[in-house]
Fold these 4 entries.
Entry 1:
Amino acid sequence: MSRIRDLRNEELTSAAIRAVHRHGYAQVTMTDIAQEANASAASINYYFGTKEKLMEATMRRLLGLLRRAALERLQGAQGPRARLEALVAANFDDRLFVPAQCSLWVQFWSNAPYSTSLARLHRINRARVQSHLQAELRHLVPGAVETVTATLQAYMDGVWLEAAQSGICDAQATRREAAVVLGRLVV
Amino acid sequence: MSRIRDLRNEELTSAAIRAVHRHGYAQVTMTDIAQEANASAASINYYFGTKEKLMEATMRRLLGLLRRAALERLQGAQGPRARLEALVAANFDDRLFVPAQCSLWVQFWSNAPYSTSLARLHRINRARVQSHLQAELRHLVPGAVETVTATLQAYMDGVWLEAAQSGICDAQATRREAAVVLGRLVV
DNA sequence: GTAAATCTTGTATGCTCATACAAGATTTCT
DNA sequence: AGAAATCTTGTATGAGCATACAAGATTTAC
């Protein structure tokens, strides 16, 4: 991959995030995205081929952020409880949990059932998060692994949904709040 | 209001639910909706004026279902705990928690920030649910009313989100599961 | 320096869509 | 029955959109 190609990839997906945040997934146009990147709609097509491929790349970028945040936080975590907290905190990492990305996240997921590429990404991501959570919860709540896993996933999704609505993403406060919830939920 | 107007209102909003479920909020067209109702796009316009007004009416219909389910279930509920359970169960009522409506619910909310009418409905609905939950939680978890209210709302939203993704809505099982979660969360 | 490769863009194309409109069908009222 | 009100639809309109394309600009390679 050439250097410039990587640069444009980053610039354009990042512009896509801002444009979708501003206009909404249902209404955003290639021109909107191009303007956000100070480029032309045609050049986006040159790099990505189609709008859908651009969206897929954009989502991939967000998923990469989440994965990296989770791995980083798992590094310093000793024991199941700390690892569980790390996983949950990663979901609300400073680099991830910001208004534009919240907005995108929720809109992409709600449109996933209608796009095979987004559906695929959703499935993969969800399975990964789920298996990470389960691995820790087996040690912590042996009798209720399934229930607590599903509850935590629903809780985190719900927090994203509300954040997207309100436009307010106080990552630090949300991590604190999530820790309190964990305290109530996991013994 | 004439009788026929009420009939069409019901037929068309109900067709809108099916059409959005099938095609997605971002892609559904007036023609899709009309076909689902065995009518013409023009007649939808006659009754609702614009697509956006149709969507608003459709959402209003779903919100009405939720309100009615909650009121009904509150009737037979004695004491804060039972009332809390009634509120949560109402969210997963048989008449509400079905695939097409899940799908719509999530898509409408994720698009709410970009539509003043949907945003309004979202705000009102959320505030109503929140105040109902809080009223009961004040008696049950006096020290953590805010946290548990927010957690429950996020949890319920998250369950809807996942149901919309998977297309699976086992209302009864979900109510049971929610009751278990309540047991973990509320002392 | 210059040719090739890579990148960028303005414009054209063809399509889809929401909505307007006017004419016709049906129902209601008397 | 006949007139008026209400409802329905086919078609027209005009806007907006993703994408294709070809020409030109820039960068890279040697």
Entry 2:
Amino acid sequence: MTSQPAAAERQRDAERTKAEILEVAQQEFARHGYAGARVDEIAARMRTTKRMIYYYFGSKERLYIAVLEKAYAEVRDMERTIEVEHLAPVEAIRTLAELTFDHHDLHREFIKLVAIENIHQAEHIRKSPALANLGTPVLDLIAAILDRGAAGVGFVTEADAIDVHMLISSFCFFRVANQHTFGALFGRDMTAPEHRDRLRAMVGDAIVAYLRGTGS
Amino acid sequence: MTSQPAAAERQRDAERTKAEILEVAQQEFARHGYAGARVDEIAARMRTTKRMIYYYFGSKERLYIAVLEKAYAEVRDMERTIEVEHLAPVEAIRTLAELTFDHHDLHREFIKLVAIENIHQAEHIRKSPALANLGTPVLDLIAAILDRGAAGVGFVTEADAIDVHMLISSFCFFRVANQHTFGALFGRDMTAPEHRDRLRAMVGDAIVAYLRGTGS
DNA sequence: TCCTTAATGTACGTACTAGTGAGTTAGCTG
DNA sequence: CAGCTAACTCACTAGTACGTACATTAAGGA
């Protein structure tokens, strides 16, 4: 009875507590925005107290930045697993577009955080050394595909990797980020299952058609 | 000296006061989000007092909804002036895409309000009878172009007007709405003058290429 | 010219909200 | 098992933010 099986049952566990704070904080910030989020509410939804939030993170702002850092790190790790080098340029860029689509479909909270951060003109990202000028592994993938495509199958050269990344991301991001106003105004939930496959194919078709250069 | 030239110099002018409140409030909400906006700050930046805000709008939330209604009305009025029926389908959709691009380029505050409203899951739009199921005149234009294009020059038929509107808007919206995080992470300000023309052409090229159907 | 009322200004109350001072305990280490 | 410190709890405060009670004034009509 006196033996404690593992660290899992420990009552005091700094890492666990910090992780729980970050998780609940991410939800709260994503749901209500930076100013709308309540430190007390975060505390109330945990087994810990508000005092611990300040003990570990110091301030509401530093907690928010920590949430951003964790969210970006997770997304970047996921992006690093993408494998499209073995595909021909057209199929490679289409696959990348569709994976980007899936990726946005899955990380709704992350997308909200990005939208919130843009409202604040990215001031918190700029305060984080871990985030400033981070980039994304996807950019290198796109650059390689564009090079191969330009050399082999006549991809257009007006756009560079950042432009193409933006064309793909914008569609995927918009569909999730603006689902509510779009739904309210047009009566269609773009994130509903019945639209998912069509829109997923659409972003692939659009980027392939664009790169093949029949738009001019 | 006792004559007062016109209403413009009247000290009491309900319409003028209301309009000024809405204008300053739009700035404040767009800059700080709904929760981050301060009623006292709005009042401080006007010639009126906070009391007037409550006299005319009743609450912070109803003021915010009024701001949304005004912003949406202005944008819709502007969209109604678009004239592309006289153009062939390809040129019509390209022109529409480029006008949409310009339109987003100009209405930065409106875009921020839309982003903010999405963070709140469009709850305020849904509370406004004037905004719920509003739609946009652009949808009818697109539908007409798609019909003509499908009949005449072989436009793809997988996407309807709403889908095409989304493809165009997403690119234009993202470029402005996400300029700050994008700039912080990739070191490129997509809204800078040196990128404007290229990106403007890009959205036109992409939508035309997609509709011509070389993406599959 | 007086009277009515819409429009406006002042000053304040209530509730909330980020942040903290100070004390307590679990669990490791020697 | 004694002692130390990181982890944790509790109670509290100072400041802020929305909203309002009440007094006042301008402007037009009778």
Entry 3:
Amino acid sequence: MLSKKTKYGIKALTYLAKQDRNVPVQIATISESENISLKFLESILLTLRKNGFLGSKKGKGGGYYLLKDPKDIPMTTVMRVLEGPIAMIPCVSLNFYEKCADCPDENACAVHMLMLKVRDNTLQIFRNTTLADLSI
Amino acid sequence: MLSKKTKYGIKALTYLAKQDRNVPVQIATISESENISLKFLESILLTLRKNGFLGSKKGKGGGYYLLKDPKDIPMTTVMRVLEGPIAMIPCVSLNFYEKCADCPDENACAVHMLMLKVRDNTLQIFRNTTLADLSI
DNA sequence: TTTTACCCTATCGATTTAATAGGATAAATG
DNA sequence: CATTTATCCTATTAAATCGATAGGGTAAAA
């Protein structure tokens, strides 16, 4: 299941991608437009800022804005920051690899084999889809 | 994340697919071979039996066995019974569809658009992969 | 100096997950 | 027919995660 954090994060990024990058947008504006709890969204945008996606400005006229061109933001990076691993199981994860405790041989494991195929495909989609593709 | 229930379920099915279909295999045998908690595996096999994948036999010489040829068991059916929806979000699910409360228009939603692509791809893999493919 | 809006940490209730406990039922065996 | 074997079934629980909220701190603009 995709977490609401990720869902809301993508919606917020998409919202920002449709705006003028030089004009900061307030959390409250996005919150109301996208029907997202203000405080929850606040923490999500904070995460996105700390991870280099957003810039922010305090005080009157402040808010958040995209730091990069949407077409230079592949969904892999967004997903990894908000959702964590793209793979369904750690033993096939590129960035969050972990060995299964119960599995003596990964190469002989049916689950590993199947989930590797799924990960390859999903990864390709996320790599080839940028924020710009989602903001039309 | 793939649940351990699904992971263990697939491993157990794979194990059974490698055996003679006419000879029941005891839970304890699979549990030991695959390093799965016996009681947990018991409940998983029960689910698989109730959903038509396995047959069972009680008493001495009893155990579980596959009801169908592994090549006639696509992973879609296994995943749906053990894991639930294949889609990452209910609004793009075929079998477990639910509308998002916050989303006024699915067709204009970035998350919907992205997750639909992922679901299509993942579904294709699960449809084209059978238990036989995983049991080599 | 007041207002505005982001910054940051802590906490909480609800849900889900993985596992366990403990006995009931049915089939084979001697 | 009693005993052993192995599945059947329900309930419970500990831990983790999730979504959301609370509440005050900080910086910038007017």
Entry 4:
Amino acid sequence: MSEHYQKGKYHHGDLRRALISTAIAILESEGVTALTLRRVARETGVSQAAPYTHFRDKSDLLTAVCINGTEWFGEYMKREANGKTGADYLAGLAIGHIHFATEHPALFRLMSTRDVAESLDESGRIPEIFHEGYRILAEGLAAAPLEHFGSANRQLDIPLAWAQIYGISNLLIEARLSPQTYGFDDETNFISALVHRFLGNDA
Amino acid sequence: MSEHYQKGKYHHGDLRRALISTAIAILESEGVTALTLRRVARETGVSQAAPYTHFRDKSDLLTAVCINGTEWFGEYMKREANGKTGADYLAGLAIGHIHFATEHPALFRLMSTRDVAESLDESGRIPEIFHEGYRILAEGLAAAPLEHFGSANRQLDIPLAWAQIYGISNLLIEARLSPQTYGFDDETNFISALVHRFLGNDA
DNA sequence: GCGCCAAAATTAACAGCGTTAAGATTGCAG
DNA sequence: CTGCAATCTTAACGCTGTTAATTTTGGCGC
């Protein structure tokens, strides 16, 4: 069912990783409502109570899923921004952010959930790259040419840019923002246009 | 338990409304995870199956809750914008939006959920004021003085403003955006500053 | 090589959930 | 006052998260 190490190891194995992997698969294919602990166990090929050897409870598994997701998310943003400089670098991060959200909506939503985020924070297990992404975003913004924004309280531009990107991501996920409405037939082009427009470096 | 019409009417009563009211109360006080159909029935003082006379299933009740919420939401924005003109009117809508979200996070999140939104759309039961809010927002934006945004593709400014407001709302709900970080001790002032900054009419 | 032990996994059970079916209760029209 | 349709209740189904008691097993000391 999963490609995770039931090789020679029959009784033991890398069950923890396998459970996380199964959970992500269910999340991606059928959304969060389909993600039950019993089903994860079933599809991993173990008994219903087996997960409790590796996770305190269901939310502990979800936390682990989120940690995996955040790493993925960070790499996603980094890849998109890699090799670019200045405003393009910033745009890359933003586009990576939005694309990740639209391609992995259930995972992204789970990662955004306050309760999960709190348990992540208190355990200090949020990967650096996650906050790193927004730190880079913030620095990019501070360094970017934003004369058209006026002069006052530039520090507010950082949370505003963050909220802008976060808002686009969420609106696209909830399908309240359709490319067609604004004359785009391709979502990728729409996203790119939105990002470059709000960053001020469009043609 | 609820103030909803168990007066003379003993067997009958305005059960439908009472259930919705109880559901909202639970949602507001303990969040969406505490909102079970059986508990709504219990706290309304009826049997577990009673709700099924008035609602097809749980999600049908949630839809009704959302309809109530949207009306509330619309009034909230309208009240905040009422009496103002031009850019201030627009700012009022935005501030109303964000305040509603932070004051009723669980309800706001539920209203934003795609599945619920879809069942709302197909039933055509979304109150006018909801879309109205964003139509007004859009028109306000189109009419507002936005010279500082440059000239190209002004139509994109509408979804961008929407996303900006939506993003601020969501970031505040998930507590990833703290007023203190940016030198504000009062959330209301922080929100106001953010809105006026991004609308370009700050001092 | 062997036996023991801690770790890992299983089975069984509990309460609570959404949902349905069958039956009881009630207000109201005739 | 009778009957009916709407409303509500009781009982049951399978599913869920979670716990306790039990069995299996891989590896370590001998």
